[in-house]
Design brief:
Layout: H1 5-12, H2 16-23, H3 31-43, H4 50-56, E1 62-67, H5 73-88, E2 92-97, H6 102-114, E3 120-122, H7 132-137, E4 143-146, E5 157-160, H8 162-175, E6 181-185, H9 191-206, E7 216-218, H10 223-235, E8 242-245, H11 248-260, E9 270-272, E10 289-291, H12 294-310, E11 319-321, E12 324-326
Parallel strand pairs: 1-2, 1-3, 3-4, 4-5, 5-11, 6-7, 6-8, 8-9
Antiparallel strand pairs: 10-12
Helix pairs in contact: 1-2, 1-3, 5-12, 8-9, 10-11
């Protein structure tokens, strides 16, 4: 039988009203009474009726979180940051994965709105040339984009400085004398790719060199993509002495291809990833990469969203977190 407020009231000798107030954390009830009632509620296995509570209180203290690809550990670390701040602030999360699909993303937003979420944190599937701008511009609750943005809605974003991060990678490689650099870039429809490509181009401009399009591969971002791209370059006879990767996952596949083709890292080819995922330091050789503050990104996104939920008239503005290039064994510099 389901434990109700009436069950707890009967077991403790208090009124249903007193039990209800204690379980809603009413501070006007004495600590002794609160401890007794909460202990008995836990003993009896009481589970609050969220639906009834939401009918009494228009605030649900629930947010929707939509990730781009839950199989990518980058997003898992961002979500940990969101979850930590949400828990501190008493919010619950509804989770979804857009699988880099605009349609699925819209479906999840509509579904979560029907569950009366008070706001969203989203890693949008597209940044340019999509219908998402109009969709989000009309959204009736506040929203924050974490790690990505949509053109025209950048002020709703918490970002990591992708342009500067990729620029630092190519500045290092070009200054080290590399001229044939294989660039395993990301999907062309997301904002991270636009910004990192821009950073790459600015580094080439600083060295008065034009990038060669034959060396630029736009890829989905999985290990097999990096593996196949490097195999393709080798099979085409494209000479290269360095590889810059859109993420550490691509770098993992790239390094497997290099190993199978008897190319030593970093003696024959230097490799640099992006994101500084946990596994990158345990690869053989350990991977040089751009460190992105993933947990901090999620925490700050939730912090900002909460501010906008509590202050609807607050102006939105872009937050840009710093990144840094970390040298490990996959580059000559350590």
């Amino acid at each position: 039988m389901r434990t109700t407020l009436k069950t707890i009231a009967k077991a403790t000798g208090f009124s249903i009203n007193t039990v209800s107030r204690v379980l809603r954390n009413d501070t006007r009830i004495s600590n002794e009474t609160s401890v007794l009632i909460k202990s008995k509620a836990e003993e009896l296995g009481y589970i609050p009726d969220a639906l009834a509570s939401s009918m009494r209180n228009p605030r649900t203290k629930t947010i929707g979180v939509i990730s781009a690809d839950l199989s990518n550990p980058f997003f898992s670390e961002v979500i940990k940051g969101i979850e930590e701040k949400a828990e501190e602030s008493g919010y619950q999360m509804l989770m979804g994965n857009n699988e880099e699909s605009e349609e699925k993303e819209k479906h999840l937003v509509k579904l979560f709105l029907s569950r009366k979420v008070e706001g969203f944190i989203i890693m949008p599937s597209h940044g340019k040339g999509s219908s998402l701008y109009d969709f989000y511009a009309a959204l009736p609750v506040p929203y924050i984009f974490a790690g990505r943005y949509i053109d025209g809605l950048e002020n709703h974003s918490v970002l990591h400085n992708d342009e500067e991060g990729e620029k630092s990678v190519f500045e290092y490689l070009l200054s080290a004398g590399h001229r044939n650099i294989l660039y395993l870039s990301g999907p062309e429809h997301i904002s991270n790719t636009f910004d990192r490509d821009m950073g790459m181009r600015k580094a080439y401009e600083n060295h008065s060199i034009a990038p060669d399009s034959r060396y630029i591969f736009h890829l989905p971002g999985h290990p097999e993509d990096g593996y196949q791209a490097v195999n393709t370059a080798i099979n085409k006879g494209l000479p290269f002495t360095a590889i810059a990767c859109f993420n550490d996952i691509l770098a993992m596949g790239a390094m497997k291809s290099l190993q199978e083709n008897d190319l030593s890292v970093p003696r024959d080819v230097e490799v640099i990833g992006y994101d500084n995922l946990l596994f990158s330091q345990f690869m053989q050789p350990s991977l040089s990469t751009v460190d992105v503050p993933k947990h901090r990104l999620g925490y700050v996104a939730m912090e900002i969203l909460e501010n906008h939920i509590n202050n609807p008239d607050l102006d939105f503005r872009t937050e840009n977190l710093p990144v840094r290039l970390i040298f490990r064994d996959s580059t000559q510099e350590r």
